[in-house]
Amino acid sequence: MKKTFLIWCFIGVGFSFTSPLYAQDLSKQIVPLDPSVKMGKLKNGLTYYIKKNSEPKNRAELRLAVKAGSVLETDAQQGLAHFMEHMNFNGTTNFPKNELVNFLQTTGVRFGADLNAYTGFDETVYMLPIPTDSAGLLDKGLQVLEDWAHGALLDPAEIEKERGVVLEESRMGRGAQQRMRDKYLKMILNNSRYADRLPIGKDSILKSFKPETIKAFYKDWYRPDLMAVIAVGDFDVNKVEATIKQKFGSMTLPAKPKKRTEYKIPLDGSTNVAIVTDPEYPQNVIQLIYKQPGSKEKTLKDVRDNFAQQLYNAMMGQRMQELTQKANPPFLYGGSEYGNFLGDLESYTSVAVAKDAPSIETALIALLEENARVQKFGFTQPELDRAKKDFSNAIEQYYKERDKTKSSNHVQEYLDHFLNDKPFMGAQAYFDLVQKYLEGVSLNEVNALAKKYITDKNRSVVIMGPEKSKDEIPTEAKIRALLADTGKDVTAYVDDVLDSPLLPAEPKAGKIVSEKAFPKLEMTELTLSNGVKVMLKPTDFKNDEILIKATAKGGYSLFPGERETGMFASYLIQSGGVGPYNQTQLQKFLAGKTVNGGPYLSELTEGVGGSTNPKDLETTLQLIYAYFTEPRKDANVVTGLLANQKAYLENMKKTLTPEKVFSDSLNAVLTNYNPDRKPLTPESIDKINLDRAVEMYKDRFADASDFVFTLVGAFKIEEIKPLLEKYLGSLPSTDRDDTFKHPNIYPPKGRIEKTIYKGLEPKSRVSLIASGEYEYNPENNIQIEALQEVLQIKLIEALREEESGVYGVGVSESTDKFPTGHYRFSIGFGCAPENVDKLVKRTQEEITKVKQNGADKKDIEKFVAETNRKMETALKTNGFWLNYLDDNTFLGDDLEEVFMQDKLLKSITVESTKAAANKYFNDDNFIKVVLMPETK
Q1: Do domains 512-633+689-727 and 751-932 have the same CATH topology?
Q2: d(CA 71, CA 65)
Q3: What's the rounded Cα separation, in Å, for the pair 10 and 270?
Q4: What pLDDT score was predicted for residue 134?
Q5: CB of 416 within 8 A of CB of 34?
Q6: Is the distance from CB of 89 to CB of 442 less than 8 angstroms?
Q7: Is CATH 3.40.50.150 the classification given to domain 271-485?
Q8: What stretches in the chain show pLDDT beneath 70?
Q9: 3-class DSSP state for residue 170?
Q10: Model pLDDT for residues 312-339, shown as the tens digit of each residue
Q11: Which residues, 6 or more positions from 483, have their beta carbon under 8 angstroms from its beta carbon?
């Protein structure tokens, strides 16, 4: 429920600058708002946005936005904006105690996954997806929003219970990142109020505040003039508007509303440098932040000028990516982008992850040089032309999918309008503007942005690294010297492009030799003359999307003792490009096209995956054909990639984080210390051989006869048959009989308990695992799924709501069909070290209750509702069908199994859950792994 503050992740917004004269007329035109949205304001000041949208059908997305976050807290309220968000789920006028969550779960809405909220510095937003196909549910959903707005009970007893939950959320956020952030935050936020008002607040206040203190926050800031109700979905707009007016119109403003101060982050022109280290931080990270005054998109000129910023970001991103594709990359990762910062500011931010502490200087120089290069020489016209093609293509797709856009996407637009004054034009108007004005964005105009973005004023430099390496990190004096001197001798960017056909010769097309219809699935299976099978499911779920996946059995399991090379084989091939194109050239060749994806080689399978659209389907199939027939190796690029991988692993090895130690220890126990499941180490990278990787790849892709391709999306079968015959029917075929060699690595039998002591913070993690042999079939699968969900519900109630001992608890299940059936249940949570034994005991008690009595009938009803609702929407997505058809084909399962759901759900009873619990939670097979902090 907490909004995480990531200081180096930004979303682009516009920046005003002087544009060519032909665009000046736009400066007098206010951005028109999408006319399909009914927007209004009640007499009490509450704003509302309503839009009818049928994707997905019979669903609505509801939001309550409050312009009140942690920045408005008094000194005594620090953390209570966030705490208030929690309390709105713990008793309101119409939903006392936890009845809100219970009610929504019975409608198929999942707590956390669907029903959620977040608290930021300046806002609190509540999210509620609700079905609209049952009488009264939409009204009930709006009733929930009204209760959140002014019906929180704030029962002192419930406040006491929730303290533990929020404190556990705070506990889970502790660690190296938090400790370093606390050291540099005031600097980059210029000692503004934002630096003193992190949404999670202070533990001392969370433990001791009086109910009156949070009630004061609720009374002061949860008021209609600071609120918006947003409703987007499959409903009658006029009825929803009438309901909003009826429910929210009765809210009244306080007689003397408290002034909502708009806090600012001051700019003083200075350059600040922070060097922070921590004993548990394994990486070496550089952030350059060039802060700028914020801007708003008020006129069409502002929107049009924003095109230049997006083109700048795209071209800079391409250049930074190219640096990582060199034989000796200057950093593991690097990026630069202009966008939102915080408060009233925007920023141009450059980030790099260095290979090690001594390489921080190299990485910083690379960032500064790339910024200087674009300042001094600008971008090239071919770069701009490609960026425009990509931008135009993306907007064209957005426009084509305008009637298939999900309600949740629309909701975000209206939130941005209410909270940040960002206009929403609608797809038609924005598409028209792009069509008319994008081409007119000149190279000089984009290049001028570099001088605006990158200055020697209002800079912050943050260097983060491991405590062990602090003596190897450049000093502040050195960093300031680099800022002053780097980039003076940079040369112009050289654009590495190639203009050649992707395929050296036209493939010799094969033929369709058989065709089989699956009427119930609305699918057709083709068999081509080379043995390749193609499953085709045309849909109307999207207007401009085609998803592709192909799978064959084998993988690197067929190369025993060569796990490391096998794991990296397809990655190394892709890094080399394909056919005549290296990776950089290929990306440029595909500019303006929707062609995504490539080959993969896993332990048990090999295949290809990707997405495209009808216009670019042929290019995508050409690329797939090329990956089969023209794989390309680039030794220089691979040298750099593997050096980066090794450096990353060396950093992790030098500074083992508590999370890494726990994860590796748990993995070792669950795989019975099998060497084929050991985590990668720097020594692993030394075992990777490029030539052998190419041999393995070629071997697995030399025979396409056992590949099954699945295509789902916007196509007509008869129209694409010639393309399938030409590019898939011509793939190489040796007709070999292939399968995989399953390693058969599963958790060991017996009772195992292991405690790991690692970490400076007083926090623990617990993982409980039950596993064993399993008869894999649909009937057992649904029972295991039901058991997982009812346990999830019960453990949230027990450990979070009753014990107040955790922020969250996860219950997951997995089943395997090969080589013999196997199942695994995993229960995990974080908590205070002193509460581990108590919470483990309570967990086992809840499992025992299900073993003795079966699940509560109401929890079974929740599982059935959630499963039905989830499936209703999944069946209308291309991604579901792509993975379902591919998975069932690989497993040899009935392709029509999806239609058994109603029958299978009826088999879930109190008795069946009791039987499943006794069968799958066998006390003889139990693993407990616990992370405890180091003793001091």
Answers
A1: yes
A2: 16
A3: 22
A4: 84
A5: no
A6: no
A7: no
A8: 1-24, 936
A9: helix
A10: 999 999 999 999 998 899 999 999 999 9
A11: 271, 368, 456, 459, 461
Walk across the sheet containing 345-354 and list its strands. Answer: 271-278, 459-466, 284-293, 345-354, 333-340
End-to-end C-alpha distance for the chain, whole angstroms: 32
Burial class (CB in 10 A: 0-12, 13-18, 19+), 11: exposed
Both tokens assigned to 252: 């009244």
3-state helix, strand, coil in the chain (%, to 5): 45, 20, 35
Contact 752, 928 (CB under 8 A): yes
Between CA 79 and CA 199 the distance in angstroms is 6
CATH number listed for the domain at residues 512-633+689-727: 3.30.830.10
Q: What is the pLDDT of residue 17?
A: 31
Supply 688's token pair: 């990777």
Point out which residues pair with 764 in neighbouring strands.
Answer: 831
Q: How far apart are alpha carbons 557 and 739 in whole angstroms?
A: 10
3-state SS assignment for residue 611: strand
**Separation CA 518–CA 896 (nearest Å):** 9
What local confidence, expressed as pLDDT, does residue 936 receive? 52
Long-range contacts of 810-817 (CB under 8 A, 24+ apart): 812/788, 813/784, 813/785, 813/787, 813/788, 815/774, 815/776, 815/780, 815/781, 815/784, 816/746, 816/774, 816/776, 817/776, 817/891, 817/892
Burial of 35 (0-12, 13-18, 19+ CB in 10 A): exposed
Q: Write the CA distances from 635 to 67, 289, 532, integer angstroms.
A: 54, 35, 32
Distance between CA atoms of residues 121 and 82, nearest Å: 10
Q: Is the peptide bond before 56 cis (omega within 30 degrees of 0)?
A: yes
Residues 661, 666, 670: CA angle, nearest 5 degrees? 150
What's residue 435's pLDDT? 97
Any alpha helices (H) in 671-777, and if so which ranges? 682-686, 690-700, 717-727
Contact status, residue 249 vs residue 42, Cβ threshold 8 Å = yes
Tell me the one-letter amino acid at 366: A
pTM exceeds 0.70, yes or no = yes
Distance CA 924, CA 917 (A): 14
Q: What is the DSSP string of 847-888?
A: HHHHHHH---HHHHHHHHHHHHHHHHHHTT-HHHHHHHHHHH
Of 3.30.830.10, 3.90.230.10, 3.40.109.10, 3.90.180.10, which CATH number belongs to 751-932?
3.30.830.10
Q: Give the domain ranges of the chain.
A: 21-248, 271-485, 512-633+689-727, 751-932
Query: How many of the other CB atoms lie within 10 Å of CB of 21?
Result: 7
Q: What residues have CB less than 8 Å from 298, skipping those under 6 apart? A: 30, 31, 423
Q: Which CATH class is domain 21-248?
A: alpha beta
Q: Are 694 and 627 in contact (CB under 8 A)?
A: no
Secondary element (H or E) of residue 171: helix 156-172
